[in-house]
Amino acid sequence: MSQPAKPATPPAGRANAKKELSEHFKQYKHVWVFVEQERGHVHPVSWELMGSGRRLADKLGVELAAVVIGPAGEATRAAAAEAFCYGADLAYIVADDVLTDYRNESYTKALTDLVNTYKPEILLLGATTLGRDLAGAVATTLLTGLTADCTELEVDSDNSLAATRPTFGGSLLCTIYTLNFRPQMATVRPRVMEMPERVEKPVGRIIEFPLGMVEADIVTKILAFVPDRDKATSNLAYADIVVAGGMGLNSLENFQLVRQLAGVLGAEYGCSRPLVQKGWVSADRQIGQTGKTIRPKLYIAAGISGAIQHRVGVDGADLIVAINTDKNAPIFDFAHLALVTDAIRLLPALTEAFRKRLSPHTRDRIAS
Ligand SMILES: Cc1cc2nc3c(=O)[nH]c(=O)nc-3n(C[C@H](O)[C@H](O)[C@H](O)COP(=O)(O)OP(=O)(O)OC[C@H]3O[C@@H](n4cnc5c(N)ncnc54)[C@H](O)[C@@H]3O)c2cc1C
């Protein structure tokens, strides 16, 4: 979807590559963030994006709008009201009971009709399952560029969105521009951007927009709704403490040492990619470029080398403790505390020590 990759610092000749934006696209103004909600639960990535959106809007001197799509009723209005506390200047609402659960057809219509009517220059969505599905469909329908899984969003000297993301297996960063089309679309994974502070604010300007579609127009039917949060899947992205293991642990049996330490610390457990590939750990627990991005207060990595594809997923951790037998392991280049030792021996000792010293009350204090 996106145009060819550009280096992070645009070369002087970049302007030559840029065709003049058509008169039609020059009308596109303002920054929009899609507020993802399912049955009244707003995904926190939406508020993380409001922080980025606010910064971009201020640089461009334009407004920041939240876009809330959902069923008619209180939950959709509450999500819009909350958006003002995270920096929105206004909110667009498309509320219709046909939109109670996400379906690509109805949400794509709601968002593309809004874009065609109010013409934003930048549109940001979370790179969640829902956000990825919706962003691709909206970009395809609008025939514009979409940069997926961005790690940085900036406005360059000629006010274009510079959307940076890893490429070539994470070994390079590229900055992608949507030069000749609008809106400039980007998705960002949960926890990549910092959560802005919530500041209590009154509800501001709200613009309601009709869906213009009825149930009979939609081919997809919802048979059951099973929310992710009710499944026994991990909550790695939002955990305060994460303990992870890598190939240095050597076996599935030894990986249980990671789970035991995580259990005592009240932490989530995760792993590097090869453990998922071996089938030892489920994919939702993989940390890194093709797994989860985490921002815990404490990250303990045992037997993980610290390859760049792993590092990009943990760089936002406040404190990284690495256990590795090789003092030259790359993980020691970015860990805050380096323990050069055998993780298979250290992990049970740590578990035992924490078990003795930590009451559940103390654990809560570590996490706060
Ligand atoms: C496109 C692409 C995407 C990728 N995405 C991801 C991703 O999302 N997440 C990810 O993790 N990887 C990802 N990878 C793989 C990544 O490049 C590395 O191969 C992987 O992270 C290595 O896993 P590891 O550190 O567990 O294993 P290894 O590289 O094998 O490292 C094992 C480490 O354990 C140490 N060790 C050995 N024995 C012990 C012991 N007894 N105690 C302590 N330390 C010990 C070793 O010194 C070594 O540093 C990706 C690769 C590609 C090409």
TrEMBL record:
SMART domains: ETF (SM00893)
Essential cofactor(s): FAD
Species whose genome carries this gene: Rhodopseudomonas palustris
Note accompanying the cofactor annotation: Binds 1 FAD per dimer.
Family named by the database record: Belongs to the ETF alpha-subunit/FixB family.
GO BP: fatty acid beta-oxidation using acyl-CoA dehydrogenase
A Pfam family assignment: ETF
Record has Ligase as a keyword: no
Domain of life where this protein originates: Bacteria
Segments forming domain Electron transfer flavoprotein alpha/beta-subunit N-terminal: 31-222
Keyword Electron transport applies: yes
Protein's name according to its UniProt entry: Electron transfer flavoprotein subunit alpha/FixB family protein
GO MF annotations, alphabetized: electron transfer activity; flavin adenine dinucleotide binding
Binding-site list for FAD: 272-273, 286-290, 303-310, 324
Keywords: Electron transport, FAD, Flavoprotein, Transport
